[in-house]
Amino acid sequence: MSQIKHGRYSIYIRPISYLVDLGIINGLAVFYFFTFVDPVVFSFIITLGWVFISVNSKFYEVYRYTREITILTLIFRQMVFFALFVLAFSGFYHELNMKPSNILKYVAYSFLLIAVFKFAFYYLLQKYRSSFGGNYRTTAIIGRNKQTIALEKFFNSNPEYGYKHQKTFSLKNTEAFDLESCFHFLKSEAIDEVYCSISELSNAQMNRVIDFADNNLIILKFLPDNKDIYSKKLKYEYYDYIPILSLRNIPLEDSANQFIKRLFDIIFSSFVIIFVLSWLTPIIAILIKMESKGPVFFKQSRNGFNYKEFDCYKFRSMMPNKDAHLYQVTRGDQRITRTGRFIRKTSIDELPQFFNVLFGDMSVVGPRPHMVSHTNMYAKRIDKFMVRHFVKPGITGLAQISGFRGEVESDKDIIGRVKFDIFYIENWSLLLDMKVVIKTFINAVKGEDKAY
Which DSSP state fits 221? Predict the structure, then answer.
């Protein structure tokens, strides 16, 4: 067995986080409750409760690759459970006369401070890694293909995550590949994590790599084979005693999540219709009518949830033409009016779709729907394109804020759009929806190159 590696992991980060958070919840308790409760007993109980809740909610399972949206979700979940715990404690010992208003203020201030600390620590660590090269892990990849090249690029392009990539081993000839020289390199360079492409190693080679990693305290991770499956978030279930893997787990198939998303859609779309469209529509209508004859609104059939067709509404931005349902708008398109150019650039033309949201055909956030003719074309040409129709289409989406909005100039554009849409479908959360909405608003104010 090789010598044990020291200092490879940031073993102090999680204990420090625990101590700071416990210091916050106990420190604030002094101001809110210690005048009429036993401080020792109260501190012991809320500390025990906090630790128990955090273990079960995985509150401290934040890693260098964890996204900010995941951290927000963890904070919100911990806050809810902790608030319920303190309320239950006050109800059980009602003689303490702990007012619910004080409890809610206590929890709110606690989590405000905890959130500030958690994100400050998160960004300081990123800065420390990128600027000073500390808190890093060395990596190597076994197997060279499209996915491992993308992973190598991720390691090299994101120093804030703290990965120092040393080498990618190519396996052009799997049987002739010399694992011993590979193992020698991993040991001599003190590699911390090895990533293997499953498709490029035989079973015998895979077992040797696993044994070597186990015996040398190297973390071993696997990449799925290099077929064009953009996301494999497998769902593990049991049918009686038979293990079953589902290729795709869709959070919005859960009735509770459907209710949350639909409630958000109704509230948000109603707000926009009442406070924005109520006064903006007459102004846009006058501008459209002054410049060209034709209707104020443009209606187009698009494919939505379960591939069902629906009428999608927009403010008309083009001169009336028979090709509007066949050809996408291109840069410098002569069909676009001057008013149309402005409302397209600012995305105002999309606002009538909030009526589609209110009627239930669309959602505020989701995969953008395409013209029926284009949908049929892409469904035949682009792998996994139809997965987008597992959920309602959206006014905006993760793909749109990630650089894949507007005209599809090549298959690369639609492939990228499908990739982000599938990620959204498999990783939906209300916080992710809010992030997309906020980023969409920022992009609309700043202006985008492909908004034409």
Answer: E
